[in-house]
Amino acid sequence: MKKFIAITVVAAVVAGCSGGKKTENNSTANRQKLLVKTIQAPKGYIAERLTYYGTVAGAKEAQIFPDMPGKLIEYKVKEGQRVSKDQVIALLDRSIPGMNYEPLVVKSPISGIVAFTYARPGQMCAPQMPIALVVDNSRLEVQADVPPDELPLIKAGQKAIIYTDGDSVIAKVKSVSAAVDPMRKVGQIKVAASSSKLCSGMLVKVDVILREAKDAVIVPSSAVVKSDGKTFVFVVEDGVARQREVKLGIEDNNQYAVVSGLQPGETIVVEGAEGLSDGQPVEVAKW
Question: pTM of the full predicted structure?
């Protein structure tokens, strides 16, 4: 009888130990897999930038006005023609009934290209009315308005990118206004550029680059999870999401540069990260 009881107790203990171990081993396997989307963390260029829209202008431009009123006789130049300083632009007839005068000669104060001629022969012109615009296209600049709170962030010499139709031009900030226009409540920057893709009068987008990294590990903002003052991404390893603390750097267009904590090429969760916990089994969705 004693022998039977001893065997029964041993069997119960063994059964109990065996059952506990099985539950512990299967705790992760029994968790439901969550569907996520992933990418391999790429390396690439990223920049912190300020974006504005501005107008291309010649570094030297001249609206040409007659010194006296008169009727336009003729233009001595055509739009698109290159002119020299003091070259004759137009002749005006300033005669009045009973009195004849020599034609009034209107000259260009600068060398450049005749961008526009505004009047027609026979039209009366006045000193307050421009008759032509001459632009020095050898030196161009983009003039853009800047909110007052962003003016201190921009310095002369900073890199800038000017965007044209389907292309871009590398440039530099030429100057930053020292004050805010009291009427319009904005400051202004001038970005120097020299390119055949630009011409005076164009409206363009311009980025002022504050910081840049040319070979950074980049993650989309959807991959980033913040909790308790820390920042994480989830790295997928053997079908399991592992929480990885990272340090972020430059932010641009819903992307971050990862300063530390992640290597290029590692598989990270980019959709579904908010619902994950460390060690969560996942199923990767097909794109």
Answer: 0.71
